[in-house]
Structures are given as structure tokens and as C-alpha cells.
Design brief:
Helix content: 25-40%
Order of helices and strands: EEEHEEHEHHHEHEHEEEE
Number of domains: 1
Radius of gyration: 18 Å
Oligomer: single chain
CATH topology: Rossmann fold
Number of strands: 12
Largest sheet: 8 strands, mixed
Strand content: 25-35%
Strand order of the largest sheet: 6-7-8-3-9-10-11-12
Number of helices: 7
CATH architecture: 3-Layer(aba) Sandwich
Length: 240
């Protein structure tokens, strides 16, 4: 069984009298330890799909199973608990709390889990080491560079050892040199720590690092020029 299984996923929004369908009958499987990139034009539904997998957006129809659990049947309260234990989210704009230190920002997700203070401390230290920021643990976001802030955001995403890490344009607000540093870090998380990654990006350089490169076009998911379709119990491909 794949780590993430999506079946016939459709998401619709209503804008006045118009119905917008960014996702239409999407099927996708992501294996444990995979590194998947997702590209598409602005408004194509990339972030919508990402947020559906993260349990933030509820689809109009279809199923999402993560690690054998069907999250599309959960209540909002159940989803909140599930996200805390299973999803690491890397944002484009860091989303750090300015009045908290780097250490405290990283610790935040652990406060939602049943965990001792000693265990939280151990996990934060490990996360700081993973992003090479132990010497900045007591610094506030205003005292950090943009790249350091993003590394704090990455440490926060991995600190709870989530089932899957989702990233929405993780390098979109960084300069070229800092982008290279963050991309190297993301690759190491996958290659050395075996973390499962789904990265939404508009940057072909970022997408090229992934083992699988997907694209959303007109609500449909394309992989390497072929549309992924589910027919009966078999996953087949047809020319896009």
C-alpha cells in the first residue's frame, strides 16, 4: 500500500454564479520515502491539492488515504489532531512567530502532542542540528537572515517526525544563493533521513531535484507527459 493514495479527487469552488474546478478526478499514489514535485500554472490547483493532502482543505468528492487512514472522513477536530502528528508544512513566507525564539518556534508543533518536556527538548535539538542552526537557537526571527528563517521553518516541519512533509513554494521568497542552500537541505532530508516530500513549486530547478515530477493542467495530473488515470483496480497511463 502506498503511503498516500488519492482516488477520484475533485475540488470545486463557487465564485458568484461561476463554479471553478481546480481539481477534477485526480488520482495519485506517493510511496514512503518518495520526493515528488508538483508544478502548474497559477490557479491550476497545486496548493489546493497540497492542502487537501495535509487535511487543511476538504475536497468536494473523492478519497484521500494517508498511511492507511482515510482522512476525508474525519471531522475538523479529528483532522487537527491528525495533522499535528502526521504533517510537516513548509511555507513560502516562513510563518514564524516573531516574539518566539528559533527554539520556541520549532518546539510549537510538539506542544500539541502528548510528550514530556525532556522529549521535546531532545527533538528540538535534533531538528536544530539537522538544519545546522544550533548556534541560532535563542535568536528571534528579526535577528535571522531569510535563509535562516526558512531553515527554522524546515526544522519546525520535521521536528515531530511527520508521516509526510508538504512544502508550498519553499524557495519562492529567497535569493539564488540561499535557494541553493535550502534545496541542498531538502535533498538531504529525503536522501539521508528518508522523509517523504511533496513540494509545490513554479521553479523548474526545484522540480528537477525530485524523483517524480508532476504537473497539474486543467484539473488533471500529468507525470512525464502522461496523464495518470485509475481504471477499475489498475493504475494505467494514457497519452496526455
Amino acid at each position: 500500500m502506498a503511503l498516500v493514495e488519492i482516488r477520484d479527487l475533485t475540488k470545486q469552488f463557487r465564485k458568484g454564479d461561476e463554479v471553478i474546478t481546480p481539481l477534477q478526478g485526480v488520482d495519485l499514489e506517493i510511496e514512503r520515502g518518495d520526493f515528488v514535485s508538483l508544478m502548474g500554472a497559477s490557479g491550476s490547483g497545486k496548493s489546493t491539492l497540497l492542502n487537501a493532502i495535509a487535511g487543511i482543505d476538504r475536497p468536494t468528492s473523492g478519497e484521500i488515504h494517508v498511511n492507511g487512514v482515510e482522512i476525508t472522513k474525519m471531522s475538523r477536530a479529528q483532522l487537527a489532531d491528525w495533522r499535528a502528528a502526521n504533517i510537516g508544512y513548509i511555507f513560502q513566507m516562513h510563518n514564524l512567530i516573531p516574539v518566539l525564539t528559533a527554539y520556541e518556534n520549532i518546539e510549537l508543533p510538539l506542544l500539541l502532542l502528548p510528550m514530556s518536556g525532556a522529549e521535546r527538548h531532545k527533538r528540538v535539538e535534533i531538528a536544530l542540528d539537522a538544519v545546522t542552526l544550533r548556534d541560532r537557537a535563542n535568536h528571534y526571527p528579526r535577528q535571522l537572515s531569510g535563509g535562516q528563517e526558512q531553515r527554522v521553518g524546515i526544522a519546525r516541519a520535521i521536528v515531530a517526525n511527520p508521516t509526510i512533509i508538504v512544502a508550498d513554494e519553499p524557495t519562492g521568497d529567497l535569493d539564488a544563493a540561499t535557494t541553493e542552500q535550502i534545496l541542498d537541505l531538502v535533498q538531504r532530508l529525503n536522501a539521508e533521513l528518508g522523509m517523504t516530500l511533496l513540494v509545490v513549486t513554479h521553479d523548474p530547478r526545484v522540480a528537477a531535484l525530485a524523483r517524480r515530477q508532476l504537473r497539474l493542467e486543467q484539473g488533471k495530473l500529468i507525470e512525464k507527459g502522461r496523464e495518470i488515470a485509475v481504471v477499475g483496480a489498475d493504475i494505467r497511463e494514457r497519452s496526455a
